[in-house]
Structure formats: C-alpha cells, structure tokens
Amino acid sequence: MKSIIINKLNRAFELTRDLAVHLDESALILHLKDLPSNSIGEQFWCIIGARESYLKAAQQGKWAGFTCSLKDTKSKQEIIDKLSLTQEQLNDLTNIDLDEARLELLFDLLEHEIQHHGQLIRYVYGNELTFPVSWHTRYTV
Q1: What is the CATH number of the domain that holds 74?
Q2: Count of domains forming the chain
C-alpha cells in the first residue's frame, strides 16, 4: 500500500509541476472570468500549503495545522521551487512506517491535489490557455 500511495502522489505532483512550468508567469494572476474565484497563483498557494501541511502531519502521525511557505503567488520560479521541494519531502516518507493514520493523511493529500487539478482545468479553459503534454495524456484535455 505504501508504494501505491507514494507513486500516485508522485504522479499527481509531477502533473502539477508540469502545469506550473508550462504556464506563462502572466497566467498566475488570472481568475475565472465573471465568477468569484481566486487566481491561478493562489490555487498553487493552496496546493503547496496542503502538501507542506499534510506531509508534516504524515511525518508526525497526526494533523499539525495548515501552513504555507509560498510568499509570492505571482512568482513562477518560487512556485516551481516549492512544488519541487514538497515532492522531495514526499519521497522522504519512504523511510518511515506508514501506519493507517499516516496513510489516511496521504490519501487526503492525494484527494486535495486531484481536486485542484479539476479546478485548474477550468482555469486553463476559462482563460483560453493551453495544457502541457502530460495533462493531455492523463486527462485527455
């Protein structure tokens, strides 16, 4: 079970990073037109914060609260750096025993990440942007 959840999270994390790399920095300030929404950069803020918070919780074996170290939701490089760092932190979990509580936290993280993929698909379509190849392959967008 441990390798399955780590592999699924890695795949989801790679897709998120691929999209961040693919988008122009100017896209980070875009919202969904004529709808109440945050920006694409703020979507990444939530993803990064969830990763940092759930991975910390998985290390500790219990929820420790939500925090996000991303300071600039308009900086493509900072977003990519934080996405890469959290993926490294995920892979650090291969060295610990993943009991049921830790697995539950990681499944919650996977669910959160994939929900954001769905949201980001709407943002990309709504702003007439394009997807990286990996998203076409995974989601047939």
Answers
A1: 1.20.120.450
A2: 1
d(CA 94, CA 6): 8
Phi, psi of 92 (to 5 degrees): -65, -20
Burial class for 140, CB neighbours closer than 10 Å (0-12, 13-18, 19+): exposed
Structure tokens, 64:
């420790």
User: For 37-67, how does the pLDDT look when each residue is reduced to its tens digit (9 = 90+)?
Assistant: 999 999 999 999 999 999 999 999 999 999 9
CB distance 133 to 16 below 8 Å: no
Map residue 33 onto helix, strand or coil.
coil
Residues 50/16, Cβ–Cβ less than 8 Å:
no
d(CA 12, CA 139): 12
Tell me the pTM: 0.96
CA-angle at 50, arms to 49 and 51, nearest 5°: 90
**Domain coverage including residue 77:** 2-139
**Beta carbons of 101 and 62 less than 8 angstroms apart:** yes
